[in-house]
Q: What sequence folds into this?
């Protein structure tokens, strides 16, 4: 059974502005030997909706918010014919966690893997799913993942002089439903004053059974903590990869991550229990999202006997780190179809990425080794395929931050930061280490959590550490035995996170903080992997009818 | 001297939503024998602005709202290199009143003359201006002319089930400045509590002189009336065409129209006078926009001695019709460079367009002869150039409404209305009459003013009438001697308006109500003029890199 608490932050603290996440239910993939073809037709459009009981204009799919769930079998080919019915905006959808081997043009990242699909036009995403797991999809153009018409305001606010913070969310959504203007209790009491579109979806269970709960966080800003009152959760999957089972009372989940947990229901339950999702890592007054673990045959509207559970304090990083460190790859070599391999023992290249905030042309930007990512109008994939060097900046990017004595505990000095669309070129068939180095922000004593997501790959999480990463000191302590495979990993305040992957998937892949405002402000890098292979690959030209690739096609047409 | 009261409706009655018109100052063209080239670089972007004293996010050009004024000489070639810095939206700019002879791809109409310019991309508009006059430019994609992020909400509201009216504007802007949250008096008193961005711009004059005032209305919804307290206005130009001079106390101006008026200042003025712009044709509580006719050396902040002038009552159509009927072409055959010709005496084809409201698929639409215009994703101009019949509906459209006994005084019966992207095919070198027939809306006893704008042409306004147009009864009364040339003309409630033009400009031209919500709801038709000539014309391919034309270019590229 699948139940998806899909925690999304909603509604900024400004009151009039709403912050909804475009997208949606995940893709459930199960292991099977018979691969098939799944053909879907989707229409993307703005519509009136009331996800948190206040009506807004949100982007939906086929008239619904969140969009449809895809249930598929490992090996299936999925074809999604997507028609853009927005009025003046382009759109793309990213299939988060799908590696897109052989189909890098289907990754759904505007300016990177494809041109945005123009309003009124149709584009067919076509890709094979490699393995069972829990994945999800979302917009990946501008800040459309936070789509409501307020995304434009947020984009302008964040790019403004001076910058304006977009505000904490006013509600968190579970499966697209949350409460802002209307309390959960109002729903539970059967009062009809709330929109049915924000009515909580209870998780109905029977006593003495085991349930698999699939979780994914698509938040724009918030990090989350998931709890079920008076129940243990056994973590078994992370980002579509099995992990060695472990039991927790609560689970941190960062934007871009997914988990499966097993829930063993009580034999002797009397009544219902709270399911609660609270904010982590930010001192936010966003109330936890609530719904009900409903023990049948009890009515779901019956309130639990006690108050909702209390989440760990927002800045209890010890608790969070303890959770992160429990996640290990499943050691089950004999499990059919399971093929976990530990990482290569040596890397061929290590890229150390220091994130700081810097002021560039009067605007506050996030920078990585002093470079803030700006995306070009021609997709990188097409620019590289056709060797269009003018499509993006051609400088080479540094594998290290320039000052080895940089003090991560103090605000940056803002020396030579620039904006650039340049990329990291990664050759094929090598082992890459990336070490994320967190540091103090512009404000004294401020450093945030950043969940970084890699497109096109899972990676092994080799370890986390405090303070500055020192190669000689820390690489010897990497976990090379059973590091978990993930596509998203967190870097903690004033700390570092090390990961490793093999360049076995030619394409152009974004690696970025999954917090939407941070990416908008430049917190990401682009890996151009296997350039020679890309030039020889068959790329769907329909993904490239814009910018300089569009002009190249145009120029080839002779009347 | 040029002074441009640029009246734009702003801020809907919903309080949080703002309705700003994207675009801007007009193009002033003066007669001259030496033609030149004017090269401009413009960047379009969202920005924080406070046009009516409340801060909003508006679309500006080169960091300003309204955008820059272009001053050119008849015969000049204008090249505008337009870069779209919106985040996820396409953009186009229409050069309202410029006929684009030989450059139909530069008309700036998304889906009609070109593909929307993608976010991040640059497009060069290049066209020659034919004659002196007062013109203006504005967005022509979705409802971007009303751009703020609320345009999306307005688009969804108007397309919703049930429909939601967007509300009357809360303020009217003069040269991009109006007062909603801050009274004009607060500015005049020199109080610093209002944003400088909404500070009224006074018209500074000296006694005993004659000034030319250029007026253009770019409103989304409102019809306007312009007055200067205790001063006469001599009308001399309409839509870039000279008219026989006549004198009025106030002047109606509908969205899409422009005028020049001559103002003779008093010899003995003591102090300042009010300039006021009020709403016509709608029972709106929008207050008039005010600024000051400032007689130097009086300080402009000095209030006039009496209250602002009172505009004619909103529904005093007798007054409005009297004004319309005064407009005649200038009879000055010996004026150098002036070449007014009266219309051909006979038409080759008359198209009678009945506008009604109808419900199509549960949505309220405006229909023309029972057809509601929907725009295709491939621009018509490219589809016709390359004979791509699948790009738009190929049915032929009726030159008459189907029921000759249709009663225009009662709500429509909503029989067989449909949505369609079909066009009227007009051969070259013929004389076309169009008669606009107004009729009752869905609600009893309701019929609105509609200012219709034709792209690619000026037309002769042959006459206005009450009730139903009957060919045999009315065509004999057409003014064929000195009908004014216009590009926009109003049709009054329960009446008709007749116009005539020669098909001397191959291209695809929209003809539509200039009220932005009405066009969004389908109130327009498309004239495909000179199809055979279009197929042979040189069309800027860069205007066509989208939809089926984009695919055609793509398919021509062989690796």
A:
């Amino acid at each position: 059974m699948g139940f998806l608490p899909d925690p999304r932050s909603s509604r900024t603290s400004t009151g009039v502005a709403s912050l909804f996440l475009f997208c949606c239910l995940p893709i459930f993939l199960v292991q099977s030997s018979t691969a098939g073809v799944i053909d879907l037709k989707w229409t993307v459009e703005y519509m009136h909706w009331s996800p948190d009981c206040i009506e807004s204009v949100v982007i939906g799919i086929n008239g619904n918010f969140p969009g449809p769930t895809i249930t598929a079998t490992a090996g299936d080919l999925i074809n999604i014919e997507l028609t853009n019915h927005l009025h003046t905006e382009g759109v793309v959808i990213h299939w988060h966690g799908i590696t897109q081997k052989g189909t890098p043009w289907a990754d759904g990242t505007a300016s990177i893997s494809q041109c945005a699909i123009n309003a009124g036009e149709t584009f067919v995403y076509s890709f094979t799913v490699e393995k069972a797991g829990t994945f999800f999809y979302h917009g990946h153009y501008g800040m459309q993942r936070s789509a409501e018409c307020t995304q434009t305001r947020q984009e302008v606010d964040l790019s403004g002089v001076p910058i304006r913070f977009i505000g904490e969310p006013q509600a968190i959504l579970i499966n697209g439903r949350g409460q802002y203007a209307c309390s959960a209790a109002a729903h539970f009491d059967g009062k009809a004053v709330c929109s049915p579109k924000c009515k909580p979806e209870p998780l109905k269970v029977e006593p003495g059974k085991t349930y698999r709960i699939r979780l994914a966080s698509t938040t724009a800003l918030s990090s989350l903590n998931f709890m079920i009152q008076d129940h243990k959760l056994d973590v078994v999957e992370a980002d579509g990869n099995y992990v060695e089972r472990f039991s927790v009372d609560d689970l941190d989940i960062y934007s871009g991550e997914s988990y499966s947990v097993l829930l063993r229901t009580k034999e002797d339950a009397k009544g219902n229990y709270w399911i609660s999702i609270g904010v982590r890592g930010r001192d936010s007054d966003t109330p936890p999202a609530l719904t009900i673990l409903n023990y049948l045959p009890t009515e779901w509207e019956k309130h639990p006997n006690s108050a909702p559970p209390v989440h760990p304090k927002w800045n209890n990083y010890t608790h969070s780190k303890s959770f992160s460190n429990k996640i290990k790859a499943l050691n089950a070599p004999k499990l059919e179809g399971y093929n976990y391999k530990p990482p290569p023992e040596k890397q061929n290249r290590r890229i150390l990425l220091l994130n700081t905030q810097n002021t560039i042309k009067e605007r506050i930007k996030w920078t990585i080794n002093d470079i803030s990512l700006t995306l070009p109008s021609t997709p990188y994939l097409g620019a590289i395929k056709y060797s269009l060097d003018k499509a993006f900046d051609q400088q080479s990017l540094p594998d290290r931050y320039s000052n080895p004595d940089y003090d991560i505990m103090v605000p940056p000095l803002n020396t030579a930061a620039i904006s650039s669309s340049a990329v990291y070129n990664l050759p094929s068939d090598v082992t890459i280490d990336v070490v994320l180095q967190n540091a103090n922000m512009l404000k004294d004593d401020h450093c945030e959590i950043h969940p970084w997501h890699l497109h096109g790959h899972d990676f092994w999480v080799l370890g986390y550490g405090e303070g500055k990463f020192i190669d000689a000191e820390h690489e010897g302590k990497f976990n090379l035995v059973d590091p978990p495979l993930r596509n998203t990993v967190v870097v903690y305040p004033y700390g570092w996170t090390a990961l490793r992957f093999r360049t076995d998937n030619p394409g152009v892949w974004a690696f970025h903080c999954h917090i939407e405002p941070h990416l908008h402000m430049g917190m990401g890098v682009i890996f151009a992997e296997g350039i020679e292979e890309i030039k020889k690959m068959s790329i769907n030209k329909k993904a490239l009818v814009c910018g300089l690739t569009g002009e190249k096609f145009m120029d080839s047409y002779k009347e």
In short: The first strand of chain B starts at residue 8 and ends at 12. The CA atoms of residues 74 and 131 of chain B lie 5 Å apart.
